[in-house]
Amino acid sequence: GGANACTGPEGFADTHHTAEAVAEQLGIGPIDVGVCSTGLIGERLDMPKLLAGVRSALSTAHAEGGHAAAEAIMTTDTVPKTSTFEAGYRIGGMAKGAGMLAPGMATMLSVITTDAVIDAADLDATFRDCVAATFDRVDADGCMSTNDTVIVLANGASGLPADDRFAEGLHKVCADLSRQLVADAEGASKLIDVRVVGAASVADAEDAARAVARSALFKCAMFGEDPNWGRVLSAVGTTSAQFDPLHIDVAINGVMVCRDSGPGESRDAVDLSGRDIEVVIDLHAGDDAVTIVTTDLTTDYVHENSAYST
């Protein structure tokens, strides 16, 4: 694939040409076609190959083609990513992305569809809330790029109006897809929930959690299965979040290794041998909390990205 970014007017025209080709095949307007691109920056799309793929995909499209579509959009992903929710009406989604996962989402692409009957403005507002709490709170490597897309489409085909369960279902699909993205992040061996609690505001909680999630030293410690709470405190200290530096607690996989900004229970009690890790940081400054989902930093990640364009 190609990002089709930094390709000038020609790249812009390629996007329009793609939309027009799809629209012609479907008998709709080009404005109703969403075009998503990801890959190397600065290189033109191979339009003959792309348009041949469009024709092939449309000729074989069918109602059960969701899994094939999820596989087709994979790049450095190792597994396709899909999620569904049903409440009479259905919500389904697919996503791709294994590197450069950080708000605004970077090389992630996701398409979510529903057959519920819902007003466009209501769908937009609900979707933005869901994205803010899910896709915007994953951070595999702190890196962003020129390309990210998350789209929701509704056709009302079920005839059933979106009820009180719709927002819950849409959030579930977004949360599921976002966790799948991080779990399959390039080279990752750990899936890490960094949760900040007791913050003075949501902004403070997110700032502190993201600082830890993006810390190369913290991520390396998790790769080495080293419950080094000093890496956590040093990252939190770089933020503008409100807290008393003498009263921070840190628990790693349920073990309070840091209490009141000093040693707590023995690090030896922490088991980091599994894939899933939870780090809870209590700022004791308020009642707000945020979780950022991240990964460790591995030698495989370095190898994969050192050879990306070659």
Report what the structure shows.
The protein has a 6-stranded mixed beta sheet. The protein has 3 domains: 1-61, no CATH class; 64-186, 4-Layer Sandwich (L-amino peptidase D-ALA esterase/amidase); 191-306, Ubiquitin-like (UB roll) (Roll). Helix 1 packs parallel to helix 2 (47-60), helix 4 crosses helix 5 (165-183) and helix 6 (202-213) packs across helix 8. Helix content is 35%, strand content 20%. The chain is built from 9 helices and 10 strands. It is an alpha+beta fold and 310 residues long.
Compact description:
The protein is 35% helix and 20% strand. With 310 residues, it is an alpha+beta fold.
What order do the helices and strands come in, and which of them pair?
Layout: H1 8-26, H2 47-60, H3 66-72, E1 81-87, E2 89-96, E3 109-114, H4 120-133, E4 149-154, H5 165-183, E5 191-199, H6 202-213, H7 216-223, H8 229-236, E6 249-252, E7 255-259, E8 262-263, E9 276-282, E10 288-295, H9 299-306
Parallel strand pairs: 3-4, 5-9
Antiparallel strand pairs: 1-2, 2-3, 5-10, 6-7, 6-9, 7-8
Helix pairs in contact: 1-2, 4-5, 6-8
Helix content: 25-40%
On the 0 to 100 scale, the average pLDDT is: 93
CATH class placement of the largest domain: Alpha Beta
Strand content: 15-25%
Derived from helix and strand composition plus strand pairing, the structural class reads: alpha+beta
Q: What's the CATH H-level homologous superfamily of the largest domain?
A: L-amino peptidase D-ALA esterase/amidase
* CATH fold annotation of the largest domain: L-amino peptidase D-ALA esterase/amidase
CATH architecture of the largest domain: 4-Layer Sandwich
Main beta sheet: 6 strands, mixed
Radius of gyration over alpha carbons? 21 Å
What would you call the shape?
Answer: globular
User: How many distinct folded domains?
Assistant: 3
User: What is the first-to-last residue Cα distance?
Assistant: 14 Å
Order of helices and strands: HHHEEEHEHEHHHEEEEEH
Number of helices: 9
